[in-house]
Amino acid sequence: MKPASLRPFLPRRALRRRLPTRRPYAFVAPGAPTLQVFNDKVKHLQRERSAGEADTSRKVDYIRDEDIKRHFPNVLDLGANACNIARALTSPPDPSSGPLHTRLSHLTSADQCSTLLHRDTHLPFNDLLPSHSRITLPPPDAPLPFAPQSFNAVLSSLSMHWVNDLPAYLSQINKILKPDSPFLASMLGGDSLYELRTSLQLADLDRRGGVSTHVSPLADIRDIGGLLTPAGFKMLTVDVDDIIIEYPDTFALMMDLQAMGESNAALTREMAGLRREVLLANEGIYRELHAEGKESIPATFRIIYMIGWTEGEGQQQPEPRGSGQMNLADVLGGGGTPGEEGKR
Fold first, then answer.
1. Phi and psi for 56 in degrees, rounded to 5?
2. Which in 1, 52, 85, 344 has the greatest CB count within 10 A?
3. Cα(220)–Cα(167) distance, rounded to whole angstroms?
4. Are 178 and 235 in contact (CB under 8 A)?
5. pLDDT tens per residue, range 204-235
6. Where are the beta strands (DSSP E) in the chain?
7. 51-77: per-residue pLDDT in tens?
8. In this structure, are residues 154 and 177 in contact, taking their beta carbons and an 8 Å threshold?
9. Rounded Cα distance, 310 and 7, in Å
10. In whole angstroms, what is the distance from residue 60 CA to residue 215 CA?
11. Residue 285 pLDDT > 80
12. Does residue 38 contact residue 102 with C-beta atoms inside 8 Å?
């Protein structure tokens, strides 16, 4: 949890000092302390360890390698990981369409983990981009180091599920976007890894007589609209997709999660890690509940996709309330009750 204000404890002389009011970056005004769910230092160390094993880390990029179908001149990839979006832009999604990197002028990839951000600087895709820069972001509780209205679009691929103060984070993204510009993002959420979550809870209960936090909490799709709207985004689109991946066993699944830098970083987790008897019980329970007689086990990754636009001139606006000329019940085939035609 962020510390409370130090203002009551400062001497009067310090309170009278005039501080510069102009800031060269978008910021969120300080307010009440926010609830901290994740340990930022632990998550940074997990991602550093993941990037240190470069070959293993590349093998588990299958979740983050998604197609990008929009283009804008000056684009920010926020939470870039190993520049997965930059690599996707240089690979045509199908033979009939050309590379997407030709449709933008400059791409800025930004991430807090410098080792992961620069993991693939030697790969060929870096030479295909027209203009590409990498920026190491400050700690999570610091403001984004970008001037207001700097970018035509902001993209984020599977990194926001580790943000503690998501409302403030989205508000900062809105500020660094130019008017009438989109924010396109995907994040893990909802029932991701529900198989692992339930089997670990049962294994804990069976072997230890209690339940501990082994899978980090995630936002639900119903929460996303309520987060984007207060941040200032308009014309929202939110969708969800389940990606089910087969693993030979739970140990392979956990090794891949560690290689991704996606291990549990909740503050309430046990520092000692999982015990051997819990791991073995988890393997049996997982297979009993979810394998359905197969040799492999499924793991569900629920991806929440979102698009929001900053306010700008010429955007589509909703019609005034009560201006509709057609009964929705007629469109949906419900019709109306007899004698109500004259009331419409």
1. -65, -40
2. 85
3. 14
4. no
5. 999 988 877 777 778 888 889 899 999 999 98
6. 74-78, 106-111, 132-136, 153-157, 182-188, 234-247, 297-309
7. 566 666 555 554 444 444 445 789 999
8. yes
9. 34
10. 18
11. yes
12. no
- Is-contact 261 46, C-beta < 8 A? yes
Judging by DSSP bridges, how do beta strands 234-247 and 182-188 pair with one another?
A: unpaired
Residues 83-100 have pLDDT tens digits of: 999 988 887 766 655 667
Counting Cα atoms < 13 Å in the Cβ hemisphere of 137 gives 23
Q: How far apart are the first and last CA of the chain?
A: 54
Q: Residue 240: which residues within 8 A CB-CB, separation 6 or more?
A: 189, 190, 221, 302, 303, 304, 305
Residue 174 contacts residue 151 (beta carbons within 8 Å): no
Grouping H, G, I as helix, E, B as strand and the rest as coil, residue 286 is: helix
- Cα 197 to Cα 46: distance, rounded to the nearest angstrom: 20
Q: How many Å apart are CA 157 and CA 89, to the nearest integer?
A: 13
Length of the chain: 344
Asked if residue 231 lies in contact with residue 174, where contact means CB atoms within 8 angstroms, the answer is: yes
d(CA 117, CA 344): 59
Q: Are 51 and 113 in contact (CB under 8 A)?
A: yes
Q: How far apart are CA 32 and CA 3, in angstroms?
A: 10
Q: What's the pLDDT score for residue 45? A: 61
For residue 304, the cross-strand partners are 187, 240
Tokens of residue 123, six digits: 């790969």
What's the confidence (pLDDT) of residue 104?
A: 86
How many angstroms separate the CA atoms of 40 and 61, rounded?
Answer: 22
Structure confidence at residue 65 (pLDDT): 42
